Write a sequence for this structure.
């Protein structure tokens, strides 16, 4: 792995069946003294570039810096977290709107709107409104297709769950947790929520290198239907938190509140990742151990539903494919929208403001 690739990369927002789900509330931690800088500005006005410049200046290569990518345009940065410096900086505009809760004391605004030519934007208001509304519609329809996919895969999940040999699985989980989580921990058990995979304009994105950086020992859980893997991960998550270990819980964008797909316990350098046809990690990681969930499933009982399971999976893949098409269309519209803001922005002012911010951040901690 090249040095420049050794970055922790996550998403804090995702297109989901419930619409755009934001976890940007995770950025602010008043009790820990984390100071958050919220950038305000329009598309194309330099928000992502500002974050990238801060990263270039302040990432010392220690490995704890988190790069938060944009689900609608994965090549762009939406946030940066620098724990050792007690700093987070984020794009606070839609769809992940952020507003200061403790202005000045915890959050500070970085206002790029002061670099606009508002008269120019007003003169082009009709085009801007039209493009913005069309892009919003694409995202709305995208989420409808994701909802359809989630419904189909949810049916497979329920079928598979009814075929789980719980006695056999519980025995395995008891042995696994005793072996891997039996160590003492003096922590309080804090959970950090992230997305490691997402449906994007470039297809399904998965940050494999992040998993490799977080865990020297990776358990690869092969589970086509997500029933056994979810039981395993939820069990281990509860055990780890109860034992005082901090965990990073990564949820599936098709089930952003209840479908746990990856779990990391940094203090133990251990991770558990679900692999299936939608995001196949088996070819890109060298696992410490492989858990084949078929061993905990009644194969004959599952076989009775083979046609339904196959239909649901194929139809869900088509729904996700249509969602990706809509995200690409939304990205094209967003690019057209950016042109107006680029033309209206004084980038000399943006660069000066960026440099002032970098100098200020360098003096912190």
């Amino acid at each position: 792995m090249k040095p420049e690739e050794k970055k922790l990369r996550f998403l804090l927002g995702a297109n989901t069946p419930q619409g755009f789900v934001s976890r940007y509330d995770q950025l602010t931690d008043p009790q820990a003294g984390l100071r958050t800088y919220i950038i305000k500005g329009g598309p194309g006005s330099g928000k992502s570039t500002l974050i990238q410049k801060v990263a270039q200046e302040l990432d010392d290569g220690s490995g704890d810096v988190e790069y938060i990518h944009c689900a609608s345009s994965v090549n762009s940065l939406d946030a940066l977290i620098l724990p050792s410096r007690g700093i987070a900086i984020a794009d606070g505009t839609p769809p992940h709107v952020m507003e200061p809760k403790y202005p000045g004391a915890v959050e500070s605004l970085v206002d790029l709107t002061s670099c606009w030519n508002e008269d120019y934007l007003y003169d082009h208001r009709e085009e801007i409104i039209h493009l913005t509304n069309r892009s919003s519609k694409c995202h709305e329809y995208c989420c409808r297709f994701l909802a359809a996919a989630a419904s189909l895969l949810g049916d497979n999940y329920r079928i598979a769950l009814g075929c789980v040999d719980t006695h056999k699985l519980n025995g395995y989980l008891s042995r696994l947790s005793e072996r891997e989580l039996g160590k003492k921990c003096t922590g309080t058990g804090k959970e950090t929520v992230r997305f490691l995979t997402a449906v994007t304009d470039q297809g399904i994105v998965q940050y494999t290198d992040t998993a490799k950086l977080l865990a020297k020992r990776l358990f690869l859980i092969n589970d086509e239907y997500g029933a056994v893997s979810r039981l395993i991960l939820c069990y281990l998550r509860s055990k780890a938190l109860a034992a005082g270990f901090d965990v990073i819980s990564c949820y599936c964008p098709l089930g952003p509140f209840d479908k746990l797909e990856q779990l990391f316990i940094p203090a133990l350098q251990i991770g558990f990742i679900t692999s299936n046809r939608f995001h196949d990690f088996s070819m890109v990681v060298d696992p410490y151990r492989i858990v084949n969930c078929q061993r905990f499933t009644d194969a004959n009982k599952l076989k009775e539903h083979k046609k339904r399971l196959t239909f649901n999976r194929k139809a869900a893949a088509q729904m996700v494919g249509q969602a990706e098409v809509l995200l690409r269309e939304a990205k094209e519209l967003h690019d057209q929208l950016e042109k107006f803001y680029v033309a209206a922005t004084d980038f000399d002012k943006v660069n000066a403001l960026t440099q002032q911010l970098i100098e200020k951040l360098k003096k912190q901690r």
